[in-house]
Structures are given as C-alpha cells and as structure tokens.
Amino acid sequence: MEIALANTQHFLFQKQIEMVKIVKDAIDRCVDKAFDGQTRGVRSCLSDGDDSDNADYFGYYILKSKNSVRPTVVDMKKSPITERDNLIDSGCYVNTIISISAFDCKWGKLATCELRGVQYVKPGQTFGASGGQACDPDDFGGEVTDDVPF
C-alpha cells in the first residue's frame, strides 16, 4: 500500500484511493467480530482529516498506529533502514504492514492499529512545520556573565 507517512504514528490516505475502502472494511470486520455486531460507540483508529484542526490533513483519512517496539523498516530492496539513514520523514511514501484489533477497555470500545513493518518507497512533501533552520550564534546577543540568575 502506498501512503504518505505523517509522523511515527499517523498515516495519511488520499480519500479517493481504493486503499481507504480496504482499511475501512478491515476495521469494520474486526469491530463487528469483537463486539458481536454492536458497533455503536466504538472509537476507530481511522478518522477523517477534514475534521482535524491540522490543515495538512484536509483531503485525507488519518490512520493512527502504535507499536510498543520499533517495526521492521526496509528500503525497496528490503535492506534494513535505521534512523541514522534519515530516509523516513513526515512526507515520504511507504508500504506498510499493519494489524487491526478491537477490544473493550477502561477507555471504552476501541479499534486500534499496530504498525508491524514499513517499506520506504519514495520521498514526498513533508507535512507540518518546515523544520526551519538553526540560528546564528550571534542571535544570542551579549556576553555571558557569571552572575546569571539561574
């Protein structure tokens, strides 16, 4: 599946792609099975980006994913990628392997997504802040003295 990686826990799907239907259907089947058809009030890991306060999410669906361990991350040749390789960012395109679960807990009925694996496909437009640039040391102003009050 080719999707834009928003950050380490959110994936963005363009609304018109077929993958949205596949993910929605998987979530619906999981929720239906977990709660014997009682799907009302279930909080889903998939949400409409048009309902978000973040303008970068408009026109997308957001899939929220968590994992307690780092997922397998590889390049197109299936060679491991580390954080030091600096390939994965908030706008790159990736293929993913996910696992959908549904359960009842102290927070209510939930449909969750676990990120199992990521395959880097290609760079994309970075979402969110541009990252800016480092300041010039002269921006700090005058000399530092020993009588700093903290």
Automatic annotation (TrEMBL):
Pfam families: Enc34_ssDNA-bd. InterPro entries: Enc34_ssDNA-bd, NA-bd_OB-fold. It comes from the Bacteria. This is DUF2815 family protein.
